[in-house]
Design goal:
6-stranded antiparallel β-sheet; Double-stranded beta-helix; about 40% strand; about 15% helix
Length: about 270
């Protein structure tokens, strides 16, 4: 195997973290800022790119890091390596409430496609690059834009997403229609496209946007119940305005509404 073979345990329910057990000389690569804790004698190195070893020269590392920059991630990643002669553990935490999803790449023909901010960490040797959409419609209206992350190799990788996550196995030709923001990732055998919802009332008053994402099997798809962007929009909409009042508090029924929902303070 090219990637290091690691063992892991996922803890928690809503604010999860993954604890990875490293044998001597084993390593794990992670996004900057995801580190939680580690045992003594684990060495931490910040590197350009993903440390997969496919690009040994500086130009190759810069090219690998530049591709990651297109996904909105940092140029740098962090490698944690066990320098002792005994088992050591290192843990990484999800950045917001949701679930951590373990992906064994050997079960997905060595490739898994995911949304741009889903990657958390992986065994050293796994490659994290980009998947560029060649279809204009998918790029403009697919919710994930033209660029998604592509995780390749033969080791373990860990994704994170908000809400509850469900995995579905699609048979050959089976189609699943999904809100464009609810896709966490899918195996490379799944065909991903978009479909116009249709109907004036559906489009204008349905509240679900103008397009579905269509996922056609065979393959595995991971779906999240609550995209983080949707949660953030709700929080922003409920946040106090510049005057210190929430939206709606200036209306005639604003004070009555606060009284009824228990938010009126004396």
């Amino acid at each position: 195997m090219k990637a290091h073979e690691i063992d892991y345990t996922i803890y928690g329910e809503e604010m999860q973290f993954v604890e990875i057990e490293l044998d001597p000389s084993e390593g794990v690569v992670a996004e900057a800022g995801s580190f939680m804790m580690m045992d003594d004698q684990i060495k931490m190195d910040t590197i350009l790119g993903d440390g997969s070893g496919q690009s040994q020269d500086i130009l190759g590392s810069l090219f690998s890091a530049g591709k990651r920059l297109l996904t909105g991630e940092s140029l740098f990643m962090t490698v944690f390596t066990n320098t002792s002669q005994n088992l050591r553990k290192v843990s990484f935490a999800s950045p917001y409430p949701g679930k951590i999803i373990p992906i064994d790449l050997t079960k997905f023909q060595g490739t898994f496609i995911c949304q741009k901010d889903a990657f958390l960490c992986a065994a050293k040797g796994v490659t994290i690059s980009i998947e560029f959409s060649r279809k204009l419609g998918r790029g403009f209206f697919g919710g994930e834009g033209f660029i998604m992350e592509k995780i390749e190799g033969d080791g373990m990788a860990f994704l994170h997403s908000s809400g509850t996550v469900i995995k579905k196995e699609l048979a050959a030709g089976e189609v699943l229609k999904v809100d464009t923001g609810c896709i966490v990732g899918f195996s490379s055998s799944v065909h991903y496209d978009i479909e116009f919802i249709g109907g004036i009332r559906n489009t204008i008053f349905g509240g679900e946007g103008m397009f579905f994402a269509t996922l056609r099997g065979p393959g595995t798809v991971a779906i999240q119940s609550l995209p983080f962007s949707r949660l953030a929009d709700r929080i922003i909409a409920s946040a106090p305005s510049a005057g210190g009042k929430r939206k709606g508090e200036g209306s005639i029924l604003g004070g009555l509404g606060d009284l009824l929902d228990g938010d009126n303070r004396f």
